[in-house]
Amino acid sequence: MAVFKKDWSAPDPISESARQKMNDLLLSGRLHRYQGGTKYVSQAEEEMAKYLGVKFCLGLNSGGSSLFLALKLSGVSEGTSVLTNSYTLAPVPGAIRHAGGVPVLVECSSTSFQLDLTSLREQQKATGAKHLLLCYMRGKLPDVDAILEFCKDTGVTLIEDCAHVMGSFWRGKPLGTFGTFGCYSTQTNKLINSGEGGFLASDNEELISRAIIHSGSYGHFHQHTSRPEDKDLLLSQHEVCPNFSLRMTNLAAVLILDQIPNLPNKIDLFNKHYQILESNLGKCSHFAFPERQPEESYVGTSFQFRLNTSNYDCLQEYQRKTLERGVKLAWFGCTDVNGFTSTHKHWRYVPSCDLNQTDLLLHNLFDVPLYHTMSWDDQDFENICEIIIEEAEKLLNI
Questions:
Q1: Which of 20, 64, 234, 279 is 20 to 30 A from 216, alpha carbon to alpha carbon?
Q2: Whole-model pTM?
């Protein structure tokens, strides 16, 4: 019986050039972005703005901080209702609560794995919510055109959580550029690995000026190069915007700058591996997952499927058996929190509601994490597919 030997949790090594720059930075001691020396964070902000196709980018200490700041700047305060996916990860409702808002969970389809538009309209009508924090969970997209039409019809402000879709497009336009803000993460389990980090992207001069002050720029806001030219605009915001101390460090910026040029190659490799999983698992009747949409250009940094059984013990056994053979699957139907995986059932800080469709989706939903597999061979993924399929056949062909 074949066992897969590679370590799913081991990121690709940091390049020699980045290690040398980090060593020089450590020797200088200038880790803070406003401490003089090379302005690595400002450089990273400019490069990310170019890559994402936006006017302005602000480097922050995490993707969660980006979500929080986007919500605050969009008018979320104590008690504000905010629509969001019911199938997401804890930082999303956490950011809403951090901003003082109340998460309003929207059903997610058991076939598309994304927002159910009927539920979205019902929840907006029931709560009067004027904000939508749209999570592109695990890289799956809703009908973005329909989402934009909904926001236009209802006057809802759109904030895009792009933690899982950096480098993805809808009809040739980068995700994160459809709403008021795009929020990105460079945490280790993302397309760019800086340990922790994030970016807030926007074309709005006033909002990005406020964001720069909120991030903790003190009187150093003039050092930012990805900002409006009008320094008086930033100075006026300095008098009214509290300092939330959300800054990115120079260390994180060095890592980010080193990885941006290689993103196209990295995305090609991820998608090649994703397509091996998609092709092989798509031939087996034991698995169900949505087809990619023709309007999207995706980044395959994880692969999700539903195992065609509702038996909890069987699902639990499946996760255990695949792990014994070296394939580490996250399971969203588990009754207990496990690693990074939790669901709305574990979030007592979120108002509860009936989410029957989402529960149906999560019950037998598995995730294959691909963030740290860029350097793996195609044959590795053929072997992974064999294990995933073989263990399903053992359990379900009874």
A1: 20
A2: 0.96
